[in-house]
Sequence to fold (227 residues):
Amino acid sequence: MTDGAAPRPVRVLLADDQPLLRTGFRMVLGVEDDLDIVGEAGDGVEAVELSRRLLPDVVLMDIRMPRMDGVAATRAIVDARLPVRVLVLTTFELDEYVVGALRAGASGFLAKDVPAEDLVTAIRTVAAGEAVVAPRILRRLLDRFADVLPDPAAVPPPVLDTLTEREREVLIQVARGLSNAEIARELSVSETTVKTHVGHVLTKLRLRDRVQAVVLAYETGLVRPGK
Fold:
């Protein structure tokens, strides 16, 4: 490969039980030079099988599918430690299935009627290792469906004790839906410092992104619903 060559396209797997929707997504994504549709799955079982075989960068995963739903399929992909990220699609933003998918390891979620440019941006973002979910929407989700989260008292002792006091403070602010800039103002530190702390939190707790950090903060009782 020569210097200056174009980067490899993001490989995308479409998983939705409605052929018409898959066709629509293919039409939207197919015009993007940096996105490559490598396969389509009509249910969760097929999504997992194709993820293992094709190793896409991103799976665009419908939540409700026959044989295996998107939550179980996401969990299977994550548990298999495949180098694959999952972006969940849902009809309803505040959906308890979305909470399940995020807990299972999805890197974010989008409404099915999201504008085409937002869908394309989200796929690129997830492929780059970032999460796609507005922190405040995630918090609303977790507040509303707190009953699907485990009782903190029943959760095994977490590794939160590996965090410094300031890292714990940053994790709490992340879980409350604050951006890095807002956390910087709240804690009277620079935004660069906050980014560093967030990176340390993710590394120490072995989390892939901020979504998982927020879910963990709720699961362990570090942040309580509605607080």
